[in-house]
Structures are given as C-alpha cells and as structure tokens.
Amino acid sequence: MNMNHRVTKAVIPAAGLGTRFLPATKAMPKEMLPVVDEPAIQYVVAEASKAGLSDVLMITGRNKRALEDHFDRVPSIEAALEAKGDHERLKRVQEATELGEIHYIRQGDPKGLGHAVLCAKQHVGNEPFAVLLGDDLIDERDELLSIMIDVQEKTGGSVIALMEVDPAQISAYGCADVSAVEGEGFVKVNGLVEKPAVEDAPSNLAVIGRYVLHPRVFSVLEETAPGRGNEIQLTDALETLARAEGDGAGVHAVVFRGRRYDTGDKVSYLQAVISLASERDDIAPALVPWLKDFVAGL
Ligand code: UTP
C-alpha cells in the first residue's frame, strides 16, 4: 500500500433519520446500533484510520450526543476498570478514543447525502477526501478504501465503489453505467442514476458507501437541485462530474467483491452481527454450536 497518500481527511455522514430502523432509532442514531459489542460507527472510523485517514469529520444530526460521547473518554468508567484490574475491557474502552482526531459538524436539516457532504466544504478545503457512510460496514479483511485512494491519485477525479447486486434489488441503490479501462483494475463511470426502476437500470452495479472525491464536487453540489425524495443527492452531483470536462472532472469506480453490510437495513444488520460474532474467538465457541442447532430446528 502506498503510505504517502495525499488524501488525509475522511468525512462520515451520520445525520440521516434512520427511518428503516424505527423505533430503535427514535432517540438514537442508527450508527450507534451495536454490531456485536461496538457501535457500527466505530468500525467505520477504524476503517478510515487503517487507511491512513486520521482527520475525521463526522456530520451529525439530531441525537448527536451519543456519537460524540462514544469517541470521548469516560474517566469514571476507565477508573472503575482500572480499580478492578480489568485491563482487557479497559483497552477495548480506550480503542474508540485512539482512532484519530474526530471533528463534528451539524447538518441542521437532513436534506440528503449530497447536502451532508456539502457541510464538509470548509473543513476539507481544496483537497481530495474520502467519504464513508456511517451505516455501511466493509469487512476489515477485505480491502477497499486504500485501493480507491490509489485510483484517485492515478486518475485525478473522483472514485466510487460499486457492488454487483441481484438486478431485482437495484432500485434500492444508486446505479452506474460503466465501461472497462484497458489494463486497469478499475472502470470508468459514464453515468449514474439514483434508485432507478428495474427496467431503467443501466446495470446491476450498485453504488455502496465509500467515495474518494475531488473537491470540485462541492461547487457541483451547490448547484445540484433536490432530486429523488426531494433530497440533494450525491449521486446526482457525481453524474454531473462524470460528464464534465476539465480539472477535477471524471468518475472512476472500483468494483468491490468482498463482504459488506448495510446496518441501516434490519436484515443486513442481523447478518453483520451473526457473521462477525461467529468469527470472534471470545464468542464463537458458545455461539456457533447453538446457531447450528437453531438453524437445524428451523
Ligand atoms: P440513507 O439513505 O440510509 O438515509 O443515508 P437515512 O435517512 O439515514 O435512513 P433511512 O433510509 O431513513 O432508514 C445514507 C447515509 O447518509 C447519511 C445517513 O446518516 C447515512 O449514513 N445522511 C443521509 C446524512 O448524513 N444526511 C442526510 O440528510 C441523509
């Protein structure tokens, strides 16, 4: 991996309403739902940190306190664990506070993912940056973000991540029309459409929640009118960039074939919990035999 990355900043939008997970998300952001024993957002911040992005800007909304508190120290808990000599738990508690420098900005009104990204304009400035959706988990054993950063450095424009989905499911995602780039492991994006009807979809390649964006996206977002769902869509701004010319134009994509979970969706969330817990040395010996029995009895 190239460690001299120019990309140093990560933006993590976590201001959505989380309506698909109500009522659990009535008083708590969906990004705080526990995946085994860590909130989903901690996996995402850890992924950014692992890719060398130590400056994180989190876009928060209502109920933002739980997010801020989670990445802050809690001296009383640390002191209690210290007094008990529970160093193992102490280490786990401190992990969240050691992932880098985390800044917060509030998206007053959740007017869409594009609008959330635009809130980062001042903090990001005029350099390429990564966007990681706070409810999208990429298994840490499967590399994606650092590959996308390399592609951004090579192509100079913006980079998105795509995943093949069952064609019948494409209307739940942004969808890309792509063409091959000879001799390269990435593709060129010719066009994008947010949540198309199955019959209008140009492919079964769905946009997933990792982006490495050229700062030109900010001026495009400022001009992007609300689209689907009356929200300012990042997909619409990327569609404009894919078709634009000049500095900072162009969109390429990495097709991800690893494990990914959408923790904002109930079924995908449960799959994340079961799958990650089944691989944990401290949990699997008790969980897996029960799981096998349980499944056999279904
Ligand atoms: P989703 O499309 O999952 O929307 O957002 P949502 O509102 O959070 O969830 P549902 O569909 O109502 O259940 C994708 C990502 O963009 C963020 C969300 O927090 C999530 O990480 N987002 C979305 C914002 O930060 N602001 C917005 O205005 C919209």
Structure description:
By secondary structure, the protein is of the alpha/beta class. The chain has a single domain (9-264), classed as Spore Coat Polysaccharide Biosynthesis Protein SpsA, Chain A, CATH 3.90.550.10. The protein has helices at 40-50, 65-70, 75-84, 87-95, 113-118, 121-124, 145-155, 216-222, 234-243, 266-277, 284-296; strands at 9-14, 34-35, 38-39, 55-60, 101-106, 129-132, 136-138, 158-164, 174-180, 187-194, 205-213, 251-255, 260-262. A 9-stranded mixed sheet has the order 5-4-1-6-11-8-12-10-9. Strands 2-3 form a two-stranded antiparallel sheet. The protein has a two-stranded antiparallel ribbon with strand order 7-13. A hairpin with a 6-residue loop joins strand 9 and strand 10. 39% of the residues are buried. The structure holds uridine 5'-triphosphate. Uridine 5'-triphosphate binds at residues 13-21, 59, 107, 110-113, 115-116, 133-135, 264. The site of uridine 5'-triphosphate has 21 residues, from strand 1 and helix 5.
